[in-house]
Model the fold of this input.
Amino acid sequence: MRQAIRIIATLLLLAVPTQSIAADDADLDALAERIPDVVRQLESLSPEDPRAYFELAETVAGEASDAAGIRLARRLLVLAFHLATDADSGLQPSICLTLAAIESSSADRQWLRALAGSLDPRYSDDAANATRRQLDAETQLEAAETLAAARAGRGVLVRQRLREPDILLALDGQADRLGVADGDSVAARLLAMARSWPCRECSNRRAQTSRVGDSRSTRICPACNGNPGPTLTRSQLVRLVRAEARLLEASARSWAAQVEIDAAAAFRDVDPAGIDRLYSIETDRVLFRDGAWVEPEPALDSPEPEPKQTTSEEPTDE
Done:
């Protein structure tokens, strides 16, 4: 009896349609308000034209940036990635960059950009940082020292270094690692950090010495508490150290340094198959019909050719 109940329960679970196959009517209604013919465009998609999936994904992501729009754009991009062939030159790297643009996870954005670079060298990290490579080692060292000076409250040195165009260029190349949003600048962020430093009480000497008669006494500076520099959160400190390490081309040689640089994140192979692991999307369901993603109908079997008649020679007596 128990075995029969288990079988019935299993069949019931298998009979429940998965949510990822059928489109949410509420999502489609919300998208139709922004893209009036979105359903018609979805139904017109064909596996023979992966670029149409990509272009519709760009439209959806641009017109509807809410959760429903992002879900649909992500599905269209993943399908386009799988349907793309060698004839679709440059499509897969562009898909990776578009996925990165709508991805909320910084680690996933970095991986997608790396995948784009592996598929097309023009988008590689080396190509993206060509300007940084052209800067000499001394300039990169001075840029790293500027970040360290900002952490240590050496405001005078920070303000001096930020007047150098090459140093500004090197620092701007670290905007993503420093968490500087579009419309802001690394220079403005560092100037804000350095504005109140050095310490007005001890000039960053960390202690104050006073003389009373023939005796002198030294005490920790009450203004900076012996630790000059802006108050940083752990996240801000890690961002600064990561950017400094990149400017110095440092590699984490110990597990402790690795934890500080990237929180000991697991290594992810830059492999196109990783798209499937990142996005659980049924890539065989490439057609949109009656509000659901379905597989193409199998082609009619062509008649099998008649077997060739083989004649065998009878053995002859010699």
User: Anything to note?
Assistant: The radius of gyration is 31 Å.
